[in-house]
Every structure is written in C-alpha cells, then in structure tokens.
Amino acid sequence: MNMTGATEDPEPDKPNHMDYGRVDCEVAKYTSEILIHISEDENKRLKKLIDGRVLIIMVITYFIQALDKGTLAFTSIMGIQKETHLEGNQYSWLTTCIYLAILVIEYPTNWLIQRAPIAKYLGLNICIWSVVLSMHALCHNFEGLVIARTLLGIFEAACQPIFVVLSSMWYKRDEQAGVVIYWYMMNGAQQIAGGLLAYCFTLLKSGPLKSWQAIFVAYACFSFLWGVFILLWMPDSPMRAKCFSEADKKLMVERVRSNQTGMQNRKFRIEHVKDAFTDVQMYCYCLIAICTTLPTSGLGAFANIIITGFDFTVLQTQLLAMILGFYIIVVLLSSHYLVKKYNQNILVMTYRSLAQ
C-alpha cells in the first residue's frame, strides 16, 4: 500500500486475530488483512484532519444542546413562571419530564443510531428539537410547557450517545478521554455564555415578544441553522467521508483498529447484551453516573431561583451562576490532566465525584 508515512507492519509474521466474518461490510472495504504501521507524523496529520471536521462539530453541538436544555433555568427568573401561571411543584416537573423522556427514548434512539447515517440522524434531531424549542415561546400554561419539554428531551436524547459513538469511531483509545472531555465541558461553557446572553435578553423591554420568549426563539433559530450545517458538512463515518481522499480514509480506519471495539455494526448480537449485564464494572459506572448527576441536575435547574432568593438582582444572579460554569471546566480539565499523568482512572473518578 503506497501511502505517505504508512508502511506494512515490521512484523509481517505477527498473527492477525481479526475475525473478518464479524466486520461490517462497509468497514471491510477499507480494512487491510496486513497490519499497516502509521508513523507518528502521519498520525498527527490524520488527527488534525479529523479534529477540523468532527471534533469541532461535536464541541459546538454539545454547547448548543446544553444551552437549549438550560433555557428553562435562565428564564426561570425572567418571568416565565408568572406568565405561564406555574404553581407549586409544577416548575420542578418541567425539569423532571425532560429526563423522563430521555430515559424512555434512550433505547430506541440508540437502536436507530446503529442503523441510520449517524451525522444525518444528528442533524435531523437538531433541526427538530430547534422547532420544539421555539414552541416554548407559544406556551401560556403548564400543560403546554410539559409537552414542549418532553418533546425536547426526546430529540435531544440522541446527542450524547451519538458523540460516544463518534469518539470511538474516529479516535484511538488513548485519544478518546480527551475528546470526550472537550465536548463534555461545554456544560460549563454554556453556563458561562448562557448567563451573559440571558442577561442581554432581560434588557428587552419592548417588542412583540417578552424577554423569556425571545430567548427561546433566538436559540431555536441558531440551532436550526446549525442542524442544517451538520447535514451538509459532517461525514457519517470515515468510510463515507467524501471530504477525505481514499488513501486517508483507509488510514483513518487503520489507526483505530487497535481499539478492538469496532467502528460500526448494524447487527444485534445477544452475546453483547449478556456481557454487559454480567459485567460488574458496568454497574459501577451506572452508580457513579447516578451519584454525580443527581446533585448537579437539581442544582442546574434551581440555581438561579436559589440565588435570586438571597435578594440578588437578575444581573448579579446570572454572573454568580457563571462561576459554576468555570468550576465545571476546571474540574474536567484537571481530571484529564491527572489521568494522563498518573494513569489512575478510579482515583481520578473519585476526585471528580468529591469535587462535584
């Protein structure tokens, strides 16, 4: 194979344990039976190409998704509760219903992710959830908001699992932690940018829309345009990436072979389900996820209301809420640094849990 920076494996007699009968037919077209050695310089060049086409999309998309989901928290002190006549625990149900929708729809959307063109499916979901987000501005009661929030959860549910698949599809195992950190820390970035943007919208004192309605409409318009951009720009996989040469596509497939996790597989295998349910680590990861998201999810929804309760102005509240965003980014970046330096995943996960 004549490719710059790529040669056949220096150990040609080394056995290749890949079972080609289980490899997706589309992946098999770009997979060589002979292991290809990719030089460090070539690997950096390929990663730079992928970052410019895939990572930047994941980072911005996750920022938009987090921003859209967090609109309720920002508008909670902008008059939405009064205008929609929310009483008692109705506001808390608006937060709960979106996660209930995600919980119910998670399996069907993961099933579709394995079978649909992944970038097209992501772009379509973004376009649909942007329309749903704009519908929030039309709601004038609790029932309407519940329907809108539930639909938002249904279509936003595809975002995070798609990014997990994309991270493993395009990146080597030792690169994946950093990639996930980059897009996941957009939770903190949206807390910072969202607070500033929300304050700007509170300055709207006239016009056909109230300030809380304008924020939903503005975010929805931007999200819709971004969804269309993804449909046109983002490749579904290395094999379908028309933006890369055939030689580069083969090398991109080759560089992730060592992951031994596969790139895509549209066939359901019951043995994978059995392995998952008998893996003790899977239950530990679930417990860690539950313990770390319980406090942060509740705080994110009620942070502005709590801060306002201490007699802070709207501007002061939005600025104080931004501190949480900076804190999230610092914790995530320091966690990534500690993992790379000491290679102690469990200890770093414990540190993250305590920090949160």
From TrEMBL:
Chief place of localization: membrane
InterPro entries on file: MFS, MFS_trans_sf
Key words of the record: Membrane, Transmembrane, Transmembrane helix, Transport
Membrane topology, from the record: Multi-pass membrane protein
Transmembrane segments: 54-79, 91-109, 121-138, 150-171, 183-204, 216-234, 282-307, 319-339
Keyword Cytoplasm among record annotations: no
Gene Ontology MF terms: cysteine transmembrane transporter activity
Highest taxon of the lineage: Eukaryota
Gene Ontology cellular component terms for the protein in this record: membrane
Keyword Transmembrane: yes
Pfam families: MFS_1
Compartment(s) of residence: Membrane
Family that this chain belongs to: Belongs to the major facilitator superfamily. Allantoate permease family.
Name of the protein described by the UniProt record: Major facilitator superfamily (MFS) profile domain-containing protein
Organism: Monilinia vaccinii-corymbosi
Source species taxonomy: Eukaryota, Fungi, Dikarya, Ascomycota, Pezizomycotina
